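Appendix B. Raw example, untouched.
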Amino acid sequence: MNWLTNLIRPRIRSLVEPKDVPDNLWQKCSGCEGMLFHRDLLENMNVCYHCGHHLRITVKDRLELLFDDGAYDNIDLPEVAHDPLKFKDRRKYADRIKDSRAKTGLKDAITIAKGTMGGIPVVIAAFNFSFMGGSMGAAVGEALLKAAEEAVKSNAAFITVPASGGARMQEGMLSLVQMPRSIIAVEMVKDAGLPYVVLLTDPTTGGVSASFAMVGDVHIAEPGSMIGFAGRRVIEETVRETLPDDFQTAEYLLEHGIVDMVVKRQKLKETITNVLSMLMKKPQPEKAKTGNGSGKKSRKDNPKANGKAPPANGEKADMARGKREVADKALLQVKTAQKAARRISKPQSKTTTKTKAKSAAKKVSKG
């Protein structure tokens, strides 16, 4: 019986029993509902490779995407009272914070990081929607002030990446006070003559969109992001009208002048770097100049490699002479046409003058 127990039974079990398969290998796109393999999705920066829908990403992935070589320094968040009102609804606010911290590994809904983008020093304050919906409480307000102070101190550009449902209701009026405080933080950066760029992501709503998220020097949004203040249903019930299907999307706001540009995630770093280089009057990095990221001209950019070598000096002179001859011929044709127009118009003017003189003489004779 040993051969049956030790050999046959394990083989039968291996064929019959279900194998343990990780449940995170595939993900459904919320845009087209297509199935996405996790490895392909990661390589495409969490953008659906079927329909181009931009899925949400974590703060860590966002910062690695923006900073040079994915390297940056985290700045500790200021200490604040985590439950100043001892708030409780269905659960205690303190318990909600503990659960969010355990789930995300973050101290609060915002992360401050310092590094470079294309060699330009920047300070980024990025929201994580997974932490209580990215809501803005006292900790977020203090963090924005600290990030602005760090940007001024380091003479760096200030970038905010909101992804929030608005103010944190568990902190009541204290959360609403953070709106003007965030404006103060932005004004500190602007008074120092430093650029302030806002990268709007999905979603940006409520008190966040009503404060620092809409006062940037440049507003850039990811495709399809929901950006607004109140919800669609609330607005429709208030104005008693049906809103457009694309209402409160990045593309709708771009069309109506609220957003400056809508940029795909793959082009975000290059676009923001170019904007900062212009605002801070610094040379663009080699990648932005050459376009292939290697600092060298590609084969299609090399005229000798693709058979389009530049003309020699003698050929340049012949080309210039030919252009001058064409220009002289065109000028001669124009002058000839003008002379012909004058000859045609002169008889008409004389006839008109004679007619007017005859009519005037008739009126005198009648009088």
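End of appendix B.
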